[in-house]
Amino acid sequence: MAPHDIRRPFKRAAISDQQKRRELSLLRQAQNRRDAQQQARCLASSILSLQSAAPESQPEQSDIELETVPEAEPESEAFSKDLDVRQASKLRGPEVRKWFARQLMLPEWMIDVPDRLAQDWYVFARPAGKRCFVVSSNGTTVSRQRNGSILHHFPSALPAGAKIRDGSGSAQSYCILDCIFHELDQTYYVIDMVCWNGYSLYDCTAEFRFYWLNSKLEESGACNAPSHYHKFRFSAVPVYNCDQSGLHAAYTGVVPYAKDGLLFYNKHALYQTGNTPLALVWKDENCSQYVIDTDGKGEIPSQQQVVLELQDDRKLVTSDDPPVLFGCLDGDIIEKSGLHTGNLLRFAIGDGGLSFVDGKLEKADLIYLGKSNRARAFADSYSKVLFQFMVRHSPLKIDDLLASINSANDQEKTPSDIEMVG
What CATH number was assigned to the domain covering residues 17-26+36-45+92-282? Predict the structure, then answer.
């Protein structure tokens, strides 16, 4: 990577309205402030009480837009806002997955370079591992994966995270951390802080959340080595302002964990559940072992594969909210294969590829392969499909990101931000 490369960003044909949705998302979060304290308490109590069980139902949806199908807003709103602890404790199986999927803030895949990247964004190297919520409450700590299953149940040095002889803590004390569990060093790397010691951070900007994360986590003792009352070590990740030096540090810097791409956070973004264009993931072969998706055997298929959800009227859609329509499945296939609404199906993208008109998906050449893995709870998001398509045909490169920063610096001489390193 050349830190002083000043070539102009390569101009791409519009394949998405990601920038427009970033602007709308910032406007929407300023207009719609919900009761974040109640949301945090509900999540803390429910994450401890929910038990994984059986019967199958339907997958969930997330966020994005292109060609859209009618929204299923009432149901998703009920799950994320109106669910209280008593209702949540009764959820089972797929409902658990649905509910927990809506609690995490999920980054979109970067398919265009955001405006004001150097001024308005942070960047850090994403740890490879299992994404999960970690909740400490009532003298215990529980981590739950994105599908709702328990990863670990353990004592920790987080507030109210362990039953210790010399202190019990307030009944209102609990913490909710957004983490990635890194198997190799058995460490929870904290990528965001949702609630700390009973104080909700849902309605705080990323700038404030990252500041608290770095200061509070260290002073709690959670970053200490494992002990009797603290089974797993926690660690903050180094977070940089996304100027030229910060991007270079995140991309090439040495970290104690295996990298799986870069994460970009808009400094003004609140912690919002579901997919958001105010958090983005990007990767290439230099900062991730897995850039192109592999099949069940761990090999890269000759054709890109996607997972879509079958809806009413044979429609095939992504996991976004509202979902993006990719096409319709032949009625004969549905009948012969015994498929039902809500099934997750695998497709290959044929030689016809994906066609776009004015930033909207016009046509997708889909070849039906069969049902997806039963353990899978979600269809692919639209941004993931596009990122994988771009990686195979015209990838967004690190030099494009640097060129965008340099181009912006040429237009307005902005003083360099101070970097935040945890």
Answer: 3.30.470.30
